[in-house]
Amino acid sequence: MRLEIDAGNTFLKWRLMDAQRLVESNSILTKDFKAQSMASLATYAVQQILVGSVAGVENNHQVQAACISLWGIDPIFAKTSNNCAGVKNSYLDASKMGVDRWLAMIAAYKKVNRSVIVVDCGSAITVDYVSAKGVHQGGYIIPGLRLMRESLLRNTAQVRFDQDHTGMAMRPGVNTTEAVMHGCSYLFQSLAHSLKDEADAETELFITGGDGELMHSMMASGLFEPDLVMEGLVWVCR
After folding, report:
1. Residue 128 has pLDDT above 70, yes or no
2. What is the CATH number of domain 83-144+179-236?
3. What letter would DSSP give residue 173?
């Protein structure tokens, strides 16, 4: 069996695969991860552990220690590279690209073998473009919904609002809370509509990440693939 782990800035997800069959999956806040978090999997005969992580060195050490403690296996951490599985990286220094972007791009491209737009709606929203020939054409990194709101709290003295306000309304706000929350919703939906317009018959649109399902519902098109980053691990860690 193969254990795949996606350690993001906010959530750490894992899934246990028996060949192509999903056996079990779960997630936890990255900051709360401990060896015991995956203890329910200890009885499985795990033979390989693949990790895609942007969570930092300390968290990587925790994941590594947990895997060695539970299964006696040193996990393989995915790394970005100049070329992999038919996809060419556009960065001059490939190591500067977040491995989650690289994994998602490769997984998406290998699914359809044509041009793709890959949108990962996590703590940050990343948008990456890959041509039909597998050439990464660049991308965008944008604050996610939570970061948009938190940045206003951190960096402005006068803007104070209720962070527990829910919903994705976009009408102009009549108080500060509504103005902030609806404004962030407006930007998020504007991005969704813009990306929907960019996709055509020759280009497949993939959406993933914690807020990916919300963006997918706004687009009413494209493919929502919640495990896209983990799906790239088998290609990158070969």
Report:
1. yes
2. 3.30.420.40
3. P
